[in-house]
Design a protein that fits this description.
This protein is α+β, with helices and mostly antiparallel strands. It has a domain of 27 residues. It has 4 helices and 21 strands. The strands form 4 sheets. The protein has a 6-stranded antiparallel sheet, with no helix packed on it. Strands 12-14-10-18-21-16 form a 6-stranded antiparallel sheet, with no helix packed on it. The N terminus is likely disordered. Keywords: Membrane, Transmembrane, Transmembrane helix. InterPro entries: AIM24, AIM24_sf, Trp_RNA-bd_attenuator-like_dom. It holds the Pfam family AIM24.
């Protein structure tokens, strides 16, 4: 890790672009992280809407229309963001900006030049970027109706990746998020790794991906986890997340919708009152019928 050529208020990592420009940054925090990026005058970063946490006084923030792919209007109709936040240092001295992860997530700095200029990520994984980075989404590519034991091969890049629906490309530095804890696996040529589909945060484009539905139909009807497995074959790099956002949100929803009686004593009283009223209604109807 090279030292920056100017003084910063923190001990940073340093990103050096293909044009030899140096940008220091630091990832702060544990479970819900923040990436703090130093910007020289006239430098800028691009971030997802709602991710800016703080910035120095010399920074200017602008919401600009930057559709993530050619079908930007369709993304907007489906509720997707088709704009980005551009943060620029308009001052005469160095400044900084803090970009926060949207949930209990780790921030992964990915130098696209080291990944052949492209990486495939889970939906909404992109957080912010420095220099030349393009983000494109594939709309409505969920995997459906896969028979038991059948493998679906996801060929090279364009669009049939289902769960890997965000394509980040270019020659700059991209910051992506992974829920919970993040693990990086470096696969050798021919090395195979089986991962739960929802736990894949990102893979390099050189990894061969197969989707295998390995649950019987009766289990699919009853629900459950780990029904779909991704079989990954190297070479390439895989980023695995321990707590996908949808799994976290489902558990929160369950705890709110089905509270423990010990934690909510009113629930027991409400149930008792409901059964008592039901009993009264049934007895009353029987008495009126006999009369």
């Amino acid at each position: 890790m090279a030292a920056p050529f100017f003084t910063t208020p923190f001990q940073p990592y340093v990103y050096q672009s293909p044009e030899d420009a140096v940008t220091p940054f630091q990832i702060l925090g544990g479970e819900a992280q923040i990436v703090q990026i130093m910007l020289k005058p006239d430098e800028k970063i691009i971030a997802r809407p709602g991710s800016v946490c703080y910035m120095s006084g010399s920074m200017e923030m602008e919401n600009v229309y930057q559709p993530e792919n050619e079908a930007g209007i369709w993304q907007w109709l489906l509720g997707k963001n088709v704009s980005s936040i551009v943060v620029r240092n308009s001052g005469q001295s160095d400044g900084f900006v803090g970009i926060a992860a949207p949930s209990l997530a780790r921030i992964l700095p990915i130098d696209l030049a080291l990944f052949g200029g492209e990486i495939l990520c889970q939906p909404d994984a992109f957080l912010c970027s420095i220099n030349d980075v393009k983000v494109s989404n594939v709309v409505n590519q969920r995997i459906r109706n896969i028979p038991d034991g059948v493998e679906v091969r996801l060929g090279n890049i364009p669009g049939a990746r289902g769960f890997l629906r965000q394509n980040i490309s270019g020659r700059g530095l991209a910051f992506t998020v992974a829920g919970g804890s993040a693990v990086q696996k470096n696969l050798e040529v021919g090395e195979v790794l089986a991962v739960d589909v929802s736990c894949i945060a990102a893979v390099s484009s050189t990894v061969d991906v197969k989707i295998q539905y390995n649950a019987p139909m009766r289990r699919a009807l009853l629900g459950g986890e780990n029904q779909v497995t991704a079989v990954l074959t190297g070479p390439g790099i895989v980023f695995i997340q321990s707590l996908p956002f949808h799994r976290l949100s489902q558990r929160i929803a369950r705890s709110v919708a089905s509270p423990n009686m010990r934690e909510n004593p009113k629930l027991l009283l409400q149930l008792a009152l409901f059964f008592f009223l039901a009993y009264v209604v049934i007895i009353s109807s029987l008495i009126l019928t006999d009369g």
